Amino acid sequence: MVRAARHDADTDLLRNKLTRPKLDNASQQDRETLLQTYRIKTIIDLRSKCVFSLPLDARTTPTYGNSRSEHLEQAKIHDAQLQGSTVHHQPKTARPESPRIPEIQYQEINLNGRSYERALFKKLKFSSQVKLIALMGLGYRNEAISILGKEVMQPRGLIGLGQNSIESSGAELQQILKMFADKENYPILVHCKSGKDRTGLVTILLLLLLNVPLGAITQDYVKSKSELSSVHQSNVEQLRAMGMNEDFDDCPPGYVSEIKAYIDDQYGSLQIYLARIGVDDILQQQIKQNLLER
User: Fold this and answer.
1) CB atoms < 10 A from the CB of 138, how many?
2) What is the spatial distance between Cα 152 and Cα 154, in angstroms, rounded to a whole number?
3) Do 195 and 49 touch, CB atoms closer than 8 A?
4) 8-state DSSP, 99
5) Prior bond to 187 cis, omega within 30?
């Protein structure tokens, strides 16, 4: 039984419980499910600490006062929900004051970090780079990001951005995969904002390493679309504000095979790619052993 990707009723239950209400807003009952039913020891959070904090130039790393992290945005939602809850009576469905569970260790690893952002920024034409920097400096964050969305992210598409992660996020992927090489971290829960792009990429790499058939990985990946239907409209509105269309809220069936083909074409195999980013054969074997352990 694969411990990180079980296709059974329990996995569906966990998916339904913890992706619809976001993990930061998990109720006391959800927390008990994580601790007592699934015995989660480690949560790997792939979200960004600072949305669009890219070093625009190798010589300078500006700080944008108007930049907001995905953690901060979610914390504000959490606080607003707490203010509307009853103080004197806290049922199991109530949300605890802290979004973190004390018994669980948290690892915040921004998968699409500065190297990724720098790579996308460099794809802009010079005039757009200047405009983006000016808008960010003046505090017009959304307008600045929409330039990158329209001119780079939209043309690249989901698959192209996944390929950019493969190319530019090697250090982050190494850090994540090393967590899976240590059996003391298990069971592990990985999440991002929607759970299909960054989390999807990490899961795809793990399942490919285990030689799971492409069809099975694809079938699991496309399930995310129906699970996210309740937030589809709000996601689309956010995407449009960034200059991107609703295709980015999709889970295209060809995503898994295209990611694998890209790795094979550029590096020869997944094993070679992993070794290139610092996950050597010993670590790969440890990951496989941990994930396949019954």
Assistant:
1) 12
2) 6
3) no
4) S
5) yes
Helices of type H across the chain: 9-19, 28-32, 70-83, 114-122, 126-137, 141-148, 154-168, 170-181, 198-209, 214-227, 232-241, 255-267, 270-276, 281-292
Place of tokens 């094979």: 264
Angle, helices 154-168/114-122, rounded to nearest 10 degrees: 140
Q: Cβ contacts of residue 47 below 8 Å, gap of 6+?
A: 69, 70, 71, 108, 110, 192, 193, 198
Cα 153 from Cα 290, distance rounded (Å): 36
Amino acid at 176: I
Contact call for residues 5 and 207 (beta carbons, < 8 A): yes
Tokens of 293: 């352990």
pLDDT in tens, the chain (294 residues): 344 443 333 443 344 434 444 677 788 888 999 999 999 999 999 998 654 554 444 333 333 333 345 544 554 544 454 455 444 445 555 666 677 899 999 999 999 999 999 999 999 999 999 999 999 999 999 899 999 999 999 999 999 999 999 999 999 999 999 999 999 999 999 999 888 999 999 999 999 999 999 999 999 999 988 888 888 899 899 999 989 999 999 999 999 999 999 999 999 999 999 999 999 999 999 999 999 985
Furthest C-alpha separation in the chain = 61
Question: Please, where are the H alpha helices in 123-211?
Answer: 126-137, 141-148, 154-168, 170-181, 198-209
